[in-house]
Amino acid sequence: MSRQREGIGLTVEPISAAEHLAFVRAQRSVSFLQTPAWSRVKTEWRSESLGWFDGRRLVGAGLVLHRPVPRLDRFTLAYLPEGPVIDWTGDIDGWLDPLTSYLKAHGAFAIRLGPPVCTDSWSAAQIKEGIADPGIQRLTGLRSQWADPVGARVTSRLRAAGWLPQSPEDGFGVGHPQFKYEVPLAGRTEDDLLRGMNQQWRRNIKKAAKEGVEVTVGEDLKAFHDLYVHTADRDRFTPRPLRYFETMFAALSAEDPERIKLYLAHHQGDLVAATILVRVGAHAWYSYGASSTEKREVRGSNACQWAMIRDSLAAGCDVYDLRGITPTLDTDDPHVGLIQFKVGTGGQAVRYVGEWDLPLRPMVYRAFALHMRRRGR
Predict the structure, then answer these.
(1) Where do transmembrane segments lie in this chain (predicted)?
(2) Tell me: the pLDDT tens digits for 121-165?
(3) Residues 284 and 218 both lie in one domain
(4) Residues 87 and 2: beta-carbon distance below 8 Å
(5) Domain assignment of residue 233, given as a range
(6) Prediction pTM value
(7) Coil, helix or strand at residue 69
(8) Which residue ranges in the chain fall short of pLDDT 50?
(9) Which residues pair with 67 in a beta bridge?
């Protein structure tokens, strides 16, 4: 990522989807939520691609999703999920000030962004010990194995500039999770990754292979969605419609044929698990998963995960991202099962800077916040 040169101010202006995509492809890692294709998935939002220029040179980019205010359509919340893609190690005021000026001039009442910057991480071994210790209730009650000074500096600068943190204590909110679980892949082999998993995960992967579970990359989104709806009913969450996944696959595949893949695990002709993998550059994400209640003993979900991890490693990825977790380590909290499942992969829990709002028109921002509270976000 290019840095701002001393004494040269950056400017922000719209760029084409082609310019945006070319910039994304030149980076080692960019969130799929910051690709031009994501604007074609989030059709309920107006979107634009913005570029940061050092003279004529494009040095940063961001996908902005605009959400209008009810009954005040000329004002929008300008949202940059897991972005923008800029040099967060430098003078962030020099990057964010021109963004603020541009968006305010074009009708934004507030900006919400989620810097792709880590603050802390915790190893699988630490998390396992924390869950076993009744005196530890949350990840943040453990000493982090690694603290990123860049994350601390970004947090401090955002707060000093009037940005308001939006990430709730449980890690999940209106936007994207602040706590995630990631498996580092760089410099590792398949054997290394298996050794890093706990005994139960290794046993489940072997069990799936012994039972004859076959994992293939396919295109049957209807079969995935039927299983996903079954999973939603069992686990009590609201499923997305089939049309959402059809749009997601069409948009991301059109941008890059390797961007998104559907993994299907069959046992004796029955679909027992299905997962969706997204990859941009050297970062791969486990995005959605589904599993049947019957034949759970053949461990189709573990087989899908292992296939995605192996393919991510073969593609040269640096990290396999299992997405959000809550930071609870309390065994009485129903959310602890999520981190227990993911910690079996080895990997590490990572805390990011989280999402932040900058009110540009305080009265409109307060009205919007009230509206969101009334509708339960």
Answers:
(1) none
(2) 999 999 999 999 999 999 999 999 999 999 999 999 999 999 999
(3) yes
(4) yes
(5) 188-312
(6) 0.93
(7) strand
(8) 1-7
(9) 77
